[in-house]
Design goal:
The protein is an alpha+beta fold. 42% of the residues lie in helices and 16% in strands. It is globular.
């Protein structure tokens, strides 16, 4: 796998099995922007990190617990993690909820939850803590006990009253693999070069399009202009550096902004507060 591996991820579920559990891999050194038809439930215990699911980009704190629907592209949640962490991922076949009995009132909350996975769902702190423990227990089980424990986990998620939908509407897969690959190549380029000047000409050449065609293509694919997306990516990286002792000016330049004033304007527009207030809150709680 290359450092910027981009791919359709394929799993070999055991014959007759509807899900798999994985807790042994580490991808922190890789920018792994990928998608797959399986639904994914991912838990990570890291203090903070990047949550990039579909067109949603944000930073998580005190771990994360997210349910991702079929074919929604996403970045590995442990990207650039340097501290020790636990990460558990459950992959369920895309028709997992079709295998549940819709006529059963007991299973209806789970079915409704899995339908919402097309938005991408982030869960509240209390549920995250509870389900993190349950997922650790899941890795120790097998057979029928593992299946019923997964249902218990999904039922606990379905009871969360403070979950967040990561997209207002279900994420729509708009492009065939060739088109998705083109966009993914651009994401990898941004990840490797966001600290430098990136022009529209640079971006359009990565996608092998004219500047005008690229702007239309990117807006249709992400519902954002390229500059909006690039600034959002840079702000996400700047947030990660707020806990350091670097000055705000150094952070601004390190994340690709040409001036502290422009960085501050973009930061406030995207977060609703200025960088110094955000940093104070991060450090002092």
């Amino acid at each position: 796998m290359s450092k910027h591996s981009i791919q359709l991820e394929k799993f070999n579920l055991e014959q007759g099995h509807s899900f798999r559990v994985e807790d042994q891999f580490r991808l922190s050194d890789f920018y792994f922007w990928h998608f797959h038809p399986e639904l994914e439930l991912v838990y990570i215990s890291a203090d903070c990190g990047i949550r990039h699911v579909g067109t949603h980009k944000s930073e998580y704190h005190n771990g994360d617990l997210v349910l991702i629907g079929s074919d929604i592209p996403h970045l590995n949640f442990d990207y650039r993690q340097e501290d020790d962490y636990e990460m558990i991922v459950v992959h369920m076949v895309s028709d997992f909820y079709d295998q549940l009995n819709y006529s059963s009132q007991e299973l209806k909350p789970i079915s409704e939850l899995l339908k919402k996975s097309g938005h991408g769902i982030s869960f509240s702190s209390e549920v995250k803590k509870q389900v993190g423990i349950m997922l650790t227990e899941l890795t120790q089980l097998a057979g029928f006990a593992r299946f019923t424990h997964l249902l218990n986990i999904l039922n606990s998620l379905a009871q969360d009253q403070e979950y967040e939908l990561l997209h207002k509407l279900p994420y729509q897969k708009k492009y065939i693999w060739k088109e998705q690959h083109r966009l993914n190549d651009l994401y990898a380029y941004i990840d490797a070069n966001y600290m430098n000047t990136i022009s529209l000409e640079d971006a359009s050449s990565i996608c092998h399009l004219s500047k005008e065609a690229f702007c239309r293509y990117f807006k249709k694919a992400t519902n954002q202009t390229f500059i909006q997306f690039l600034n959002g990516y840079r702000i996400a990286q700047a947030k990660r550096q707020m806990m350091s002792t670097d000055s705000l000016s150094d952070i601004a330049f390190a994340t690709g902004f040409e001036s502290l004033a422009y960085f501050s304007r973009v930061f406030k527009r995207m977060t609703g507060e200025n960088p110094s207030s955000y940093r104070h809150k991060m450090i002092n709680g």
